[in-house]
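Quick illustration for those who missed Monday's session on complexes.
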Amino acid sequence: MDLNTRMQNVAVVGAAGKMGSGIALLLALELAFRALENPRDTFVLSLIDTHDAGLQGLLRYVRDQARKEGERQVNRLRALFRDRADLVENAEMVEAFVAEVMLHLRTGKTLALAGDALLVFEAAFEKEEVKFQIYNELAVLCPPSAWFLTNTSSIPLHVLTDQCGIQGRMIGFHFYNPPAVQKLVELIVPEGCDPELVAASEDLALALRKKTVPARDIAGFIGNGHFMRDGLRCIREMEHLALDYGFVQAVYMVDKVSRDWLLRPMGMFQLIDYVGIDVFQLILRVMDKYLQEGLHSDLVDTLLEMGVRGGQTSSGGQKDGFLRYDKGRPAGIFDPATREYVPMDPAFTADLDGRLGPHPDPALTWKALSRDPGKEGRLRAYFATLKGLDSLGAGMARNHAEDSREAALDLVRQGVAARAEDVNAVLTLGFFHLYGPVNDYLD
Ligand SMILES: NC(=O)c1ccc[n+]([C@@H]2O[C@H](COP(=O)([O-])OP(=O)(O)OC[C@H]3O[C@@H](n4cnc5c(N)ncnc54)[C@H](O)[C@@H]3O)[C@@H](O)[C@H]2O)c1
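Prediction with nicotinamide-adenine-dinucleotide bound:
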């Protein structure tokens, strides 16, 4: 059965979630274009979630985004609608496209809706028991030829396939957040996976304009394999610094160095907040269960017990976590001793910036560099300066860069990544880093 036939009956489980809604949008647009190109075929996209209001919000989101996509692709629509004499203006074509997108969608709360699906994307909660329950049901409900594309961030796929009797029929099609924007799909191929499923997944990624990076079926894969270890090393560094400088001061310093001195888009504590401290803990737990290497943080547990969670609001706003946010920007730091946020006012930051020492090049920021065609040369010059600096900040940055490189090389040594370039690709494409952790900038 070819991919186009499979694309005629697709389901997304967990469709109203952060990842599921982006995946649903990508598929809804792709199916609409396929339907316009293959008018004799029928295309169905079943959007399944246990959350009613979420499903309604999803339909609204897909409709609004389909309009924007139609406006972007109006020339393609003109060609596809060339026989429709009733459509003259661009706006009419765009509205016809929106109607086409919505035509293929059906929503529901029960997995039975996926009963005739040939491709099932799953982006439900990252909890083993939830995924076991879903796949045990799907194994019975779906045709034996159905393929399952899971978005799990950490659970080894062979555990899911063995528990649920779907060996050979599952692949990890791991989108990054937000799926509609991020170019990366980490492709996790468990042992015994049908080679046709692997080939079809590559074709599908191409159709969705994604770049695939292969990862072995080892808990956490490449993305979280690096992020969790990088996050834990920053927490440990912060706890060590806190002995001399105090907790909130240490959080500020580590966050600042990991963002501004390593030229990353976010500091580590902001990134953990963005992902959600609860999600960070869930992934650590799953990884540690399978890898048994002490991937755990008492501090993370304590913060969650105090109700400090981070994560996003339903409209995409940042919730407070390690940091407090004002219009999306860090404005305070949580102090577990008082359970209050200490404001990051100028007096507080100036003192700590003084202790870190002068930044090697204050004009160089992630934002400026990400648009700079001469980025590579500037990065080399920057790290050459960083290498020669004798200050607390420079030492912290060098140590972090070295640990990040070791974490990446460990993934290669453990066979999670076939090559250092694959880890670099995941960090640059999936985490928006300007450079991969395996580099010679500081050698
Ligand atoms: N959030 C990220 O940054 C990110 C990135 C990559 C991968 N992932 C992975 O994607 C998956 C989803 O993560 P998320 O952040 O979108 O979570 P989320 O909590 O935003 O969404 C999960 C959705 O699943 C639904 N759900 C739960 N049980 C269900 C069931 N039995 N049937 C149908 N729907 C069910 C929920 O109602 C919710 O809408 C997880 O496996 C996660 O590890 C997340």
